[in-house]
Every structure is written in C-alpha cells, then in structure tokens.
Design a protein that fits this description.
With 346 residues, this protein is an alpha/beta fold. The chain has 14 helices and 9 strands. The radius of gyration is 21 Å and the shape is globular.
Length: 346
C-alpha cells in the first residue's frame, strides 16, 4: 500500500489551529487527504506544488487507503481527528453519504478532477489477449450466471482465447477501481444474459451478488492498494493479466501493454471520449466544515483546478483531462465551495 508519499511526512507538533471543533481535544494545522490509490499520485503532485507556492505551509499528509476505506475515514466525523478530503475513483455512494450525515459530516463539496480508465494489461511478450466484458465476467465471477465457477483456462471462457490458466492480479474490495470494475465491466458481462438483466428489477441483491462477486479460488489475486506491484507481477509473468488505473498503464508502457476491451484499446483518446468501456471520472470530496480551520485546504483545491487542464502538469502525470465544460463547472465549484446535492447519488 502506497500510504505515505514523499511530501506526506508532515510533523504533527506545534499545532496551532483547532480543526473544526472536534471533540477529541486534538488540534491540527496541516491538510489530511485519504482515499484512492489511482488519485494518489495526482494529489501528491498537487500537494508538492501547493507547498512550493506557499512558503511556510505544512506538508499535507496523503494516505493511499483505497476509495472505500477512505470513505469510511472521511465519513467518520468532523474534527481534527478526521480527514479533510477524500480521493475517489468513483462517485460517492448514497449509503456512504448517509453514513457521513449520521456522523455529522453534513456539508460536502464534490469536485470532479479528471478522468481515468480501468485498464486491463499484459506483459509486452504476453499472448495478445482480446477481451470483452462477458469474457471477464465468465472468467472472474464467483457464480457466473448463477452457476458454479468451473473455468480454469481462458479458452474455457471463450474458445477464441488462449489455452492458458486464468490468472488475474487486481484491486481489493476496498478499492474504487474494484467498484468500477464491478459496475463497468462485470455487470455489463453479466447482463449479456437477459435473465440476469431482468433480475436487476426483480431482486436487486441477488443481481448484485451474481453479477459482481469475484471468485476466491486463486484465479483472481488481490494486490492491495499498490498498483505498481500489479505492474511488476504481470511484467514478470507473460501469462498473467493485471487490472489497475489507466495512468499506471501509461507510465509503464516499456514493461506492459494494454488489452483491448470489446475491440477498443485503453488509450488517452478512448478514455477521454468514453469509447473505452472502462472509462470513469475521478473525484475529490471535501468537508465544508474544515475549509476555514485548515488553512492549506483552499490553496490545495485551487492548485488542483489550475493543474487539471490540457496544459496542466497532471496530464503529464497520466491523468486524462476532463471535457472543457466539466472543468469549467468544477472550477466554479472550487471557487464558490458549492455544496454537493446528494439527491443524484445511487
């Protein structure tokens, strides 16, 4: 797990600001950010630039916990002992927002910072896999279409695929990448069966179980919140497949290559125009109650808004730039600290 970044070793001594009246008696005068391993490298780059532009500012603490685990920390409450910002590689869930509100985190600012894709990749000398959501679902589901999982090799899933063992390194259940995998790929593959698609309306819980639960017999191997470890594993094993954020594929093209999904390669262009099936937005969630108490929070968000454009340094870091209307809308959210309307959350 990439928990501490190079700028994340902020001292917790000589604290001068009481963060938002937390009841624990703790004080804090530096920014604390938790969440997605996909957003992590972008957040650390922005944090470094913010510190450089604001002499004397304490270095933010950036923790790569995974989106789901980060949401739990973020929604734990208001005050110095709780994080200020959550990085997310998917949108906040309605249930998470309800947990936030229950714990006093009632005013939240949602900022879409850019795009990413769930990339499927293999070693440069890999078998030239070509996959569809249905192939991935049949290979990775615990009970594909409600039947016991029996596939050992890829050609048992689809005769056009090679006769090699199914070995996939991917994100854990706490990861937003795993959530996006379930929503964008596994569920699409599952719903290729009309009966499974109809089940969504008649029995949502069973539909979710059958369509998104991943096998646990060793064919799918969770690698924690360390996407670089997945890159290393598939680079060393030409018969294995890795699943991670697109930015990790882009920065490791000398060692690995993308696998087409439904005939579309994961590229900057296919993610930015959403023609790639695994394209997804990236977010920051901010506690409005912490904005005034944590002085570095606003400069950090302003720096993000400066960095996410076509000429910004986040593009060079591998982030896919969001469309202009999305960037304009979210720059306005940052400028006005507009609160999230939770009615659209699912």
């Amino acid at each position: 797990m990439r928990k501490w970044g190079p700028i994340a070793l902020a001292s917790a001594t000589a604290l001068t600001v009481s963060a938002c009246g937390g009841g624990s008696g703790e004080n804090r005068d530096f920014l604390r950010v938790v969440g997605s391993s996909t957003v992590y490298p972008f957040a650390t780059a922005v944090a470094e630039a913010t510190v450089k532009a604001n002499p004397g500012m304490k270095s933010p603490v950036i923790e790569s916990t995974g989106t789901g685990a980060g949401m739990k920390l973020f929604c734990g409450g208001v005050g110095a002992q709780h994080p200020d910002i959550e990085m997310a590689s998917r949108r906040m869930k309605k249930s998470e927002h309800e947990d936030c509100v229950k714990n006093g985190v009632k005013d939240i600012i949602e900022v879409q910072i850019g795009l990413d894709g769930i990339a499927f990749a293999e070693a440069t000398n890999g078998p030239e896999m070509k996959l569809t959501p249905e192939d991935v679902y049949k290979a990775l589901a615990a009970t594909p279409f409600g039947k016991p999982q029996a596939a050992k090799n890829w050609n048992e899933v689809n005769p056009a695929l090679p006769a090699i063992p199914i070995m996939v390194y991917g994100p854990p259940s706490t990861s937003g990448t795993r959530d996006a995998l379930a929503e964008l790929i596994l569920t699409k593959g599952c719903e290729s069966d009309p009966a499974m698609k109809a089940l969504k309306d008649s029995d949502k819980d069973t539909h979710n179980e059958l369509c998104t639960k991943v096998r646990t017999d060793g064919a799918y191997v969770e690698q924690g919140e360390n996407d670089n470890l997945i890159v290393q594993k598939i680079a060393a094993n030409p018969k294995a497949i890795g699943i991670f954020g697109f930015s990790f594929l882009e920065e490791n093209m000398a060692k690995i290559k993308g696998i087409p999904m439904s005939g579309v390669m994961p590229t900057y262009e296919s993610v930015s125009d959403f023609s790639y099936p695994g394209a997804r937005p990236l977010y920051l969630y901010v506690k409005a109650a912490h904005v005034k108490a944590i002085k570095s929070l606003t400069p950090f968000l302003n720096e993000f808004a400066k960095a996410w454009g076509m000429d910004g340094y986040l593009k060079a870091k591998g982030m896919v730039v969001a469309p202009e209307d999305v960037r304009t809308k979210n720059a306005d959210v940052v400028a006005k600290m507009t609160l999230l309307d939770a009615s659209g959350l699912k």
